[in-house]
Amino acid sequence: MNSRELAVAILALSISLQVSAETSAAPENVVVIEIRDYQFMPAELTIAPGTTVRWENHERRQYHNVYFEQLGDEPRDYFWPGEYRERTFDEVGTFEYICEPHNSSHAMRGVIHVKE
């Protein structure tokens, strides 16, 4: 194998590993909600029972949390840019949530509908 063939093989392997890492980041039953500009995107989501929702913080500097008061939760800890929180929904229902520190100032809220 000459140096050009070796370089092409290394590049192909590198691309293959990168694609593999990107596609395996979130399992099939994980749905991502991005947090950006003080918004949950999407703010409303319909999922099947057993699905895990991952809230990913894509802000530049701002922390957030995901608080389900109706479920009896205590306000959850804050997570910073590049971090995420997950919750699995096993029961059918409608679940409203807020970002507790930014609900009043930015109306930061969302809803998860779990349907069969």
From TrEMBL:
State any GO CC term: membrane
Extent of the signal sequence: 1-21
Localization per Swiss-Prot or TrEMBL:
Membrane
Q: Per UniProt, which keywords does this protein have?
A: Copper, Electron transport, Membrane, Metal-binding, Signal, Transport
The answer on whether this UniProt entry bears the keyword Protein biosynthesis reads: no
UniProt xrefs under InterPro entries: BlueCu_1, Cupredoxin
Q: Which Gene3D superfamilies match?
A: Cupredoxins - blue copper proteins (2.60.40.420)
PANTHER family per record: PLASTOCYANIN MAJOR ISOFORM, CHLOROPLASTIC-RELATED
Protein name per UniProt: Plastocyanin
Annotated GO molecular function terms are: copper ion binding; electron transfer activity
Query: Which Pfam families has this protein been placed in?
Result: Copper-bind (PF00127)
Q: Which organism is it from?
A: Azoarcus taiwanensis
Keyword Metal-binding listed? The answer is: yes
Q: Which domain of life is it from?
A: Bacteria
- Where does the record place the Blue (type 1) copper domain? 31-115
